[in-house]
Amino acid sequence: MKLKSLALATCMASLPFAALADGHSLKVGMITTLSGGGAGLGIDVRDGFMLAVGQADRNDIEVVIEDDQRKPEIAVQLADKMIQSEKVDVLTGIIWSNLAMAVVPAAVAQGKFYLSPNAGPSVLAGKGCNENYFNVAWQNDNLHEAGGAYANTAGYANSFILAPNYPAGQDALTGYKRMYEGELAGELFTKLGQTDYASEIAQIRASGADSVYFFLPGGMGIAFLKQYADSGLEIPVVGPAFSFDQGILQAVGDAALGVVNTSQWGKDIDNATNAQFVETFQAEYGRLPSLYASQGFDTANLLMSAMDVADVNDADAFRTALQAADFDSTRGAFKFGSNNHPIQDIYVREVIKEGDVYTNKIIGTALTEHSDVYAAECKF
Amino acid sequence: MSMILLAEQVLNGLQLGIMLFVMAAGLTLVFGVMGLINLAHGSLFMIGAFAAAAVAGATGSFVLALIAALSAAAAVGALVEVVVIRRLYNRDHLDQVLATFALILIFSEGTRWLFGSFPLFLNIPSYLAGPVSLPGGIEYPLYRLTLIAVGLLIALGLFLLISRTRLGIQIRAGENDREMIAALGIDISKLYTIVFAIGAGLAGLAGALVGAIQSVQVGMGEPVLILAFVVIVIGGIGSIKGALIASILVGLTDTLGGVLLPALFKQFMEASAATSAGSSLSSMLIYILMAGVLIVRPTGLFGARA
């Protein structure tokens, strides 16, 4: 039943969403990952975005959705097509940093607005920032910095840290070390896409660490957590929310229970927008929303808040309206810093079980009103 | 580095190698006997894992899940052989690669259509969970020891099948001269379907066994497929014995390289750079091994034909 309604929702949402266009309508091009290994993230962003658009019930917004298959060259082709033949005003949707780096600089150089619902590579926050590029999620380092800050408050003094050997993995460990004040029991780079962590777990066991911090997104995190739980190690594990989102937790099962993770969003953040979002998302799609869905939802609401006060053809006015971020975020307080990246609280969550469903509960705040270190390098 | 850690890493390498063997055995049989490059072997691995996850979810029994994985993958393998693969035997390798690559895409999107885009849950049964103490004070997960034992049993079973049974004689004969055994009255197309189904079933079983400690998701088979091809090239195409030795060699090289190289680099480099450089080099190590073997023995360790 759940499967059926999920499939139905997916079918419905993948139809091009065409509203009646009048003279002032705004066209959004969404390029996101809907097939292949990382499809769960793109589907969540799309569903969150379309939920907000549907709830606003307005006829001046049109959304074109395309699947980038997680391939940079396809994302670039889609962006060209959307800008040149679809004539979109705003682009959004990209999940992965390498795809964002391939698409965003060219798109904003052509005067389009880009709202990032997920990826936040450091270049786009610092030296390569652009006044038309807005990040509605986080800068890539943020959740890892929160991990380091949490380790300090939890009293960890000897962490073992590991991440895959690729740019976001190296950024992750750098972000953790930026905030973390203790010693390192070990530092490991694993292979990207690695599925067996027996060797790493043996090294953790031998290292005498008092805590483990790992950044292993997607299937890598599932494999690591299951194998870690089976190894009998009792050292506490901390990670960013990417390994503990709603889509992944059900596949990890009991192995994730009690694990602490850092996130800018949680379904129990207490505000009216978030409560309404969680409830309507569940009713619409038959599953709990993930942080990616909340980011898609916030992106759409930010966009529509700007449409209410400015016309997209007046780029300066529209940009000012976006910068104001005058919308009700699922995260509560939300504003943009000088580089158009969020200034927001980052929370500490713990994995719990509600009935049959594994989910997260917020247990504290790691960083308040946190920005990023790259903002200083950004000059529009 | 302590001896306990080293011993544990050797066990890890052994376990990785044995699971690679179960995957590669089917691939090398199909390649050796039928002369077919089957890129969709990784999809059969995935089908096994998904079948196991579905059955384990419905019944709660891990044994039933393994049986389901084996039979689902073998059934899909037989079906694919009859519908698609059969038309490819007389084509060149490029056509086979294209057709079986298309199968990967069809199976991946088909699985997503059936099961959705989110990873499935498949866990170790409670009676195999947790670590056991081995002599020498090593704490090692029981499930991984079980994997080593199951893999060795499969190796023994395959060895007996190939060397002691009538089917095995036919397989070996088919490998050497397919026209001749057809002329002797053996139904070669039936033989090929059986060989393909055996290979597929083994891949499915490996998928289910490994899926319990990894992530059951669309596309999980492709990374393993690359390693399996490395194994059969090192071992010599068509040789089960070669596949066994090569997969253990690859498993040990991969695991021990990943541990020892960064440690070695730390002797004369700064820690963070050593980790990064060591990891990069260790991920190349099995390909260097493959290149080395091919220079010395161009047909692989146990390859019969040039």
Explain the layout of strands and helices.
The complex is a heterodimer of chains A (380) and B (306).
Chain A: H1 2-14, E1 26-32, H2 39-56, E2 61-67, H3 72-84, E3 90-92, H4 97-109, E4 113-116, H5 122-125, E5 133-135, H6 142-154, E6 158-164, H7 167-179, E7 183-190, H8 198-207, E8 211-214, H9 219-230, E9 237-240, H10 246-252, E10 260-263, H11 272-285, H12 291-309, H13 315-324, E11 335-336, E12 342-354, E13 357-370
Parallel strand pairs in A: 1-2, 1-3, 3-4, 4-5, 6-7, 6-8, 8-9, 9-10
Antiparallel strand pairs in A: 10-12, 11-12, 12-13
Chain B: H1 3-34, H2 41-59, H3 62-83, H4 93-115, E1 131-134, E2 138-141, H5 142-164, H6 166-176, H7 178-183, H8 188-211, H9 221-235, H10 240-265, H11 271-296
Antiparallel strand pairs in B: 1-2
Helix pairs in contact in B: 1-5, 1-8, 1-9, 1-10, 2-3, 2-4, 2-8, 2-9, 3-8, 5-6, 9-10, 9-11, 10-11
Strand order of the largest sheet of chain B: 1-2
Task: Specify the overall morphology of chain B.
Answer: globular
What are the secondary-structure elements of chain A, in order, as H or E? HEHEHEHEHEHEHEHEHEHEHHHEEE
**According to CATH, what is the class of chain B?**
Mainly Alpha
Number of contiguous helices of chain B:
11
What is the average of the pLDDT values of chain B? 89
Described by its quaternary structure, the protein is heterodimer
**CATH topology group of chain B:** ABC transporter involved in vitamin B12 uptake, BtuC
CATH T-level fold name of the largest domain in chain A: Rossmann fold
Uncertain spans of chain B, ≥5 residues at pLDDT below 50?
A: none
Number of helices of chain A: 13
Main sheet attributes: strand count, strand direction, barrel closure of chain B: 2 strands, antiparallel
Please give the number of β-strands of chain B: 2
Overall pLDDT level of chain A: 89
Summary?
Chain B: Keywords: Amino-acid transport, Cell membrane, Membrane, Transmembrane, Transmembrane helix, Transport. By secondary structure, chain A is of the alpha/beta class.
